[in-house]
Amino acid sequence: MTIIYIDENFAPQLAKSLNLIQEHLNLKEKNRYKVISIQDRFGRGVQDEDWIPIAGKEGAIVITQDLRIQTTRHQRDLYIKYGLGVFFMKAPSKKGFSFWEMTMQLIKRWPEIKKLSSKTKRPFAFRCTSKQLHFELLD
């Protein structure tokens, strides 16, 4: 079973809701997933340097709006070292996504997230904006 962490820059209720939906899908799909909020698993305000190694060792995936994980050298090196898969969702403004915008983005992109996470060797990083049709692989 693959764990997909939802970063704390999303409401933890999104992770719980997606997990309920995915539990139903797991009954019929070959690849099974468990969706967990980083906040619920590691605590509110946990530093990226603390959860990335653990998530990587679990073979997990993370969905986040925090592009600094890619652009901050030591954080990027950390997710690469621990073999983490990362999906960056770039919001249309500095305010980020509203709750409903994020919910719609996650639901719309859920099949692609699962497909890419099952077919792409870790570590990896994909990014998309709200306007893009598909994720793009980052270097």
Q: In terms of topology, how is this protein built?
A:
Blueprint: E1 2-6, H1 12-26, E2 33-37, H2 38-42, H3 48-57, E3 61-64, H4 68-71, H5 73-81, E4 85-90, H6 99-119, E5 124-129, E6 136-137
Parallel strand pairs: 1-2, 1-3, 3-4, 4-5
Antiparallel strand pairs: 5-6
Describe the protein's architecture and organization.
By secondary structure, the protein is an alpha/beta fold. Helix content is about 45%, strand content about 20%. It is globular and about 40 Å long. The model has no long low-confidence stretch (mean pLDDT about 95).
List keywords for this structure.
single chain, 6 strands, 139 residues, alpha/beta
Overall mean pLDDT:
94
Separation of the first and last Cα atoms: 27 Å
**Can you tell me the residue ranges where pLDDT is under 50 for at least 5 consecutive residues?**
none
The order of strands across the largest sheet is: 2-1-3-4-5-6
| Total helical elements | 6
Q: How many domains in all?
A: 1
Order of helices and strands, N to C? EHEHHEHHEHEE
Strand content: 15-25%
Major beta sheet summary: 6 strands, mixed
